[in-house]
Design brief:
Number of helices: 13
CATH architecture of the largest domain: Orthogonal Bundle
Domain HD: 135-258
Pfam families: HD_5
Number of domains: 3
Order of helices and strands: EEEHEHHHEHHHHHHHHHEEEEE
Helix content: 40-55%
Structural class: alpha+beta
Domain HD-GYP: 113-309
CATH class of the largest domain: Mainly Alpha
Shape: globular
InterPro entries: HD/PDEase_dom (IPR003607), HD_domain (IPR006674), HD_GYP_dom (IPR037522)
Length: 362
């Protein structure tokens, strides 16, 4: 399969990876044939990329960090909890929501099982979801990315669980906002931005009163907008004043937000997001944590369509952990735009292709 822009998709092409609704249910499943109506519907729902079947890349299969079943269970849990808190005034008034901690221990336990089975593989977040599902899928992605950093740091089981639950629920304070503000599709004005800033404290107050949720997990909600140089909020903490869990969640939050389409901007490519993160080292984030994070994220994920400085177009068929910016590319089109007679591969890590670089990717 290969990843393409929705605007490059054509009627008759076959979807190679399932697209999810906001609650984790299937919108369009693997094997569905695209039509003009489907393509327009996907555009209207905020889908900007697709995975499609291609006879030249049918052996290229990107592996998500977690299984689809695990992702669905996690999104279901986040969706039920967040929408319940938004819509149920009785729940909002409670100091404790029964079994919340136990439920999310189970959810992150499944995520952790998947991650632990493939911790040495570069992460490729390749799930697709509609724009309205960003909030729920984003929480799951942040927990996946945070879990990977926790594993890389050698956290024990208790630390991983504290971090993972904090990452799944780091934005729970957003449920206390007015719904029209929570899902606003245009840029916020200054007054709205100030109101949204309270979600960190609202989230902390919600989580610190829950049974079976660590106070350290609650600090992920409180501190995920603090910044390494002291310019964040709500308390302008700096450096080691910010708990490491919250620093990890902050990096994961920003990275996944950058590579996700938002109502007011298109998504960044993973390579662009990584450049921005690295540039923010020791200003927004601890540079050492950023470096550790970047060692475990694919700059050019498998199945990405890329353009080379030679003008050739191909698909990433393999990544090299020793040089994540030099993957193996399966060439599909030559520099003049003509399709190749037979696809062939170029290992950009090889000395034979050291002068060739990727200049653009989907």
């Amino acid at each position: 399969m290969r990843k393409v822009s929705i605007h490059s998709a054509k009627p008759g092409e076959i979807i190679a990876k399932t697209i999810f609704l906001e609650n984790g249910n299937v919108l369009l499943g693997k094997g569905v044939q695209l039509t003009d109506r489907y393509i327009q519907r996907l555009i209207n729902m905020g889908i900007d990329i697709l995975y499609i079947e291609d006879k030249h890349t049918d052996d290229i299969v990107p592996e998500d960090a977690i299984r689809d079943e695990t992702r669905k269970h996690a999104v279901d849990a986040v969706y039920a909890t967040m929408t319940g808190l938004m819509e149920n005034t009785v729940l909002k008034r409670r100091t404790s929501v029964p079994d919340l901690g136990l439920a999310f221990q189970k959810v992150f336990g499944e995520i952790l099982t998947d991650l632990s089975s493939r911790r040495d593989i570069l992460v490729n977040l390749c799930s697709l979801h509609v724009l309205d599902g960003y909030f729920f899928h984003h929480a799951v992605n942040v927990s996946v990315l945070a879990g990977i950093i926790g594993l890389a740091k050698g956290y024990n089981q208790q630390q991983l669980m504290e971090l993972g639950i904090g990452a799944l629920l780091f934005d729970i304070g957003m449920t206390q906002l007015p719904k029209e503000l929570w899902n606003k599709r245009t840029r916020l004005n200054d007054e709205e931005k100030q109101r949204i800033r309270y979600h960190t404290e609202d989230g902390f107050n919600l989580l610190r009163n829950q049974y079976n949720i660590s106070l350290l997990s609650a600090h992920c909600a409180l501190q995920h907008h603090e910044r390494y140089d002291g310019t964040g909020y709500p308390r302008q903490l700096a450096d080691k004043q910010i708990h490491e869990y919250a620093q990890i969640v902050a990096i994961a939050d920003v990275f996944d937000a950058l590579i996700s389409k938002r109502p007011y901007r298109d998504s960044y490519s993973p390579s662009e997001a990584i450049e921005l993160l690295f540039a923010a080292g020791n200003s927004m984030f601890d540079l050492e944590l950023v470096k550790l994070f970047l060692q475990h994220v694919a700059i050019y994920p498998i199945a990405s369509t890329v353009t080379l400085n030679t003008g050739q177009i191909g698909v990433v068929s393999a990544v090299n952990p020793l040089a994540v910016n030099r993957p193996t590319i399966r060439i599909l089109r030559e520099a003049d735009g003509s399709p190749v007679a037979a696809p062939y591969e170029m290992d950009l890590y090889s000395k034979d292709f050291m002068s060739i670089t990727i200049v653009d990717s989907v």
